[in-house]
Amino acid sequence: MKIGEKLRELRIQRNLTQEELADRCELSKGFISQVERDLASPSIATLTDLLECLGSSLQTFFADESAEKVVFSPQDMFEKDDGENHKITWLVPGAQKNSLEPILLELRPGCASQVLPPHEGEEFGYVLRGTVRLHAGKRKFTVKRGYSFCLHPATAHYLENTGHTPASVLWISTPPSF
Question: Is the peptide bond before 175 cis (omega within 30 degrees of 0)?
Answer without folding.
Answer: yes
